[in-house]
Q: What sequence folds into this?
């Protein structure tokens, strides 16, 4: 009973905050007057002056994209070098050595692409400087990059006969200054109040009550955890991520950390409605995401509370924390895989087969159920374009969306954005399954082993970052292939999306007539869900049948591996 | 393009100062002022010596103490983590079966189904500081026996468990639990 109340409370808070934050973000990105502009306007203007940005200048999609590329590439280099050189740099009180080149590559790509996959173990790999200057900074700017792409797309869909999509540097700055930074400051202070550490002291050595030695790791954790949740990043300060008592000490910190996973992606649907000039358009997208979220949550709860015939227990606690229990662990696992967050408060590898499958399936759909900040919604727009196109074929009219004609170019780009990440998952997983160095990383045998590999590449391609963490991924093979998977999964979607934005912006807007196919009603909700499940999901059904589904049936027969 | 590169370098530099230096320092300043104890790891001292953190579980396997949960890292925080064994893992099955029989044996429990799940399954962090209040209660007989407690002392122990058990936060969030290290510290104080 208490479990149901907690879940309802979570959902109610999410729905209540969506229009509040969504309306605010619309004001920020439409450059209207808002309260924070009075307080922080000087900071925004200071950044423009220091960097030589002309905030009134707008660019076409190619210039916008080239700025994004250059900025991301330099960010990658900095994080890469910080790890390779950390032994020579200050603020490394534990004297941790330089990271290996392949691990540095993987982590730098991972944080630059908003994936935040953990091949590293925070407390034993990175000193405080890398965590702050490398990881925390990318947590902010990779999230801001995702929001910027979405904002450009929203402008492209709603402006008419123009080339201009806005200014990448301005959108990036506004995301950080008005949205991410204020929320992160408030949130990190609350987290410290609950017990999350925030200090620059070295680790504490203690002799425990039973007279053994224990080293207690510390660090500036709260400031990183706040943004890791808000920016759908998910890379932990500590290895156990938000299962670690110093990252997530209480049920209240857990509730807030779960809420902040979905907060910005959900609110952006409302922002989207404001840009489209119709709140209904925004809520339609929200409802589609919400239905897919709720369906996954339902199946996952059912499976996790079910009886495990191997271990003779229902509601297995392996890889779960006492203070969260089963319900909060399942709720988090669904939220974090829906959004491309990837932080965890329980070990997904130890989830029951169908709960694990829900998590993998969420990743495979391309992270469109709320999804990453910005990234989730622009991924959803790709599916919307496809749905409008298919609906157009069915009724025999030229498809339109928000008054714009959807033509061959947009549909090709949309298909590209869906196919490319799917290819990464299938090809790289096949490679890992058929090579000795791929199989060497497995922690579990049988169908669960396949699930570990599938999960890893789905997580990389979807820029999620969570894992079936038994897989030993800190090897040259996995660090490189997963790194490539993240790059392709990120830019294989961003490039077509920006092309769509640019092309749509140049089109005329046709006024709504009785012949217009409506995209803000229940029929469209159903169609869109159908297209997501069929196009995004069916691709992977055979692989899922061999992994988690088979494991489910074998488990019920009491078979072990 | 050259203009873009120069702007990108400057923006990254400014963002690094803002979000990588100013932001963590600001938060550290507020945290150290307002929540000094929590910000430094909620450390606990006994006779003036730091013996651990309230939030980081410790290994307890002595028959004289309340046991903490099984841990995949044996309560070594460097690094933290779970076992990552899946639901059809043979290794996990063996571990769980042996933990179940050891727990039942040492605590003289006949019905093994009554053992709370957290006592036979390893936590996610390997550092879980809590167990459920029931899991503490069923260890009372064993501890009382090993410490040669009188009836009065045993009653006092039960009362301590009741007092130290935490309800779900705000009577709503999370699960009922008890902090094993704090409980064992109180246990040592029973005279």
A:
């Amino acid at each position: 009973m208490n479990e149901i109340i907690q879940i309802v409370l979570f959902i109610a808070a999410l729905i209540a905050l969506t229009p509040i934050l969504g309306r605010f973000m619309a004001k920020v990105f439409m450059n209207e007057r808002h309260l924070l502009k009075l307080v922080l306007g000087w900071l925004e203007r200071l950044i423009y002056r220091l960097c030589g940005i002309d905030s009134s200048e707008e660019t076409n999609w190619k210039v916008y994209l080239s700025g994004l590329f250059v900025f991301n590439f330099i960010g990658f280099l900095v994080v890469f070098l910080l790890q390779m050189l950390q032994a020579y740099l200050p603020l490394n009180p534990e004297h941790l050595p330089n990271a290996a080149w392949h691990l540095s590559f993987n982590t730098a790509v991972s944080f630059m692409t908003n994936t935040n996959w953990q091949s590293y173990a925070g407390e034993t790999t990175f000193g405080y400087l890398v965590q702050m200057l490398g990881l925390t900074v990318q947590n902010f700017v990779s999230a801001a990059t995702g929001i910027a792409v979405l904002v450009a797309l929203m402008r492209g869909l709603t402006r008419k006969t123009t080339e201009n999509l806005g200014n990448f540097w301005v959108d990036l700055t506004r995301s950080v200054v008005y949205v991410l930074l204020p929320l992160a400051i408030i949130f990190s202070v609350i987290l410290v109040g609950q017990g999350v550490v925030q200090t620059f002291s070295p680790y504490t050595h203690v002799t425990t009550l039973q007279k053994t030695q224990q080293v207690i790791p510390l660090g500036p954790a709260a400031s990183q955890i706040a943004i890791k949740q808000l920016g759908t990043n998910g890379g932990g300060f500590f290895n156990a991520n938000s299962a670690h008592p110093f990252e997530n000490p209480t049920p209240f910190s857990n509730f807030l950390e779960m809420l902040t996973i979905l907060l910005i992606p959900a609110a952006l649907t409302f922002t989207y409605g404001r840009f489209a000039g119709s709140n209904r358009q925004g809520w339609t997208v929200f409802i589609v995401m919400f239905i897919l979220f709720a369906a996954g949550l339902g199946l996952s709860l059912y499976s996790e509370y079910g009886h495990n015939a191997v271990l003779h227990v229902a509601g297995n606690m392996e890889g779960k924390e006492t203070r969260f229990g089963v319900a909060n662990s399942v709720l988090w696992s669904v939220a974090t895989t829906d959004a491309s967050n990837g932080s965890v408060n329980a070990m997904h590898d130890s989830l029951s087969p169908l709960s694990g499958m829900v998590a993998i399936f969420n990743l495979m759909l391309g992270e469109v159920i709320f999804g990453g900040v910005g990234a989730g919604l622009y991924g959803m727009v790709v599916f919307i374009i496809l749905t409008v196109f298919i609906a157009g074929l069915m009724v025999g009219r030229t498809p339109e969306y928000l008054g714009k004609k959807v033509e061959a170019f947009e549909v090709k780009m949309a298909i590209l954005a869906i196919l490319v990440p799917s290819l990464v998952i299938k090809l790289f997983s096949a490679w890992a399954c058929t090579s000795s160095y791929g199989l060497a990383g497995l922690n579990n045998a049988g169908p669960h082993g396949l699930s570990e590999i599938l999960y890893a590449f789905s997580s990389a391609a979807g820029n999620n970052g969570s894992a079936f963490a038994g897989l030993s991924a800190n090897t040259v093979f996995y660090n490189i292939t997963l790194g490539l998977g993240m790059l392709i999964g990120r830019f294989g979607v961003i490039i077509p999306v920006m092309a769509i934005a640019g092309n749509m912006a140049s089109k005329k807007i046709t006024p709504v007539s009785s012949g217009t196919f409506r995209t803000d009603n229940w029929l469209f909700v159903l169609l869109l869900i159908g297209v997501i499940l069929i196009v995004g999901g069916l691709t992977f059904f055979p692989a899922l049948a061999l992994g988690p589904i088979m494991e489910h049936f074998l488990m019920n027969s009491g078979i072990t591996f | 393009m050259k203009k873009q590169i120069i702007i990108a370098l400057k923006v990254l530099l400014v963002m690094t100062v803002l979000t990588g230096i100013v932001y963590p320092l600001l938060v550290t300043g507020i945290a150290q002022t307002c929540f000094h104890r929590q910000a430094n790891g909620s450390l606990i001292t006994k006779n003036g010596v730091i013996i651990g953190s309230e939030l980081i579980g410790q290994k307890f396997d002595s028959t004289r103490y309340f046991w903490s949960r099984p841990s995949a890292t044996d309560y070594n925080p460097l690094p933290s983590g779970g076992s990552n064994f899946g639901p059809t893992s043979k290794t996990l099955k063996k571990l769980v079966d042996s933990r179940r029989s050891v727990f039942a044996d040492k605590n003289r429990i006949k019905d093994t189904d009554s053992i709370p799940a957290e006592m036979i399954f390893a936590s996610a962090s390997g550092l879980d500081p809590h167990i459920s209040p029931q899991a503490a209660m069923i260890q009372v007989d064993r501890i009382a026996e090993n410490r040669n407690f009188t009836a009065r002392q045993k009653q006092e122990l039960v009362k301590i468990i009741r007092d130290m058990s935490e309800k779900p936060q705000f009577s709503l969030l999370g699960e009922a639990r008890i902090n094993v290290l704090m409980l064992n510290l109180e246990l040592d104080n029973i005279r």
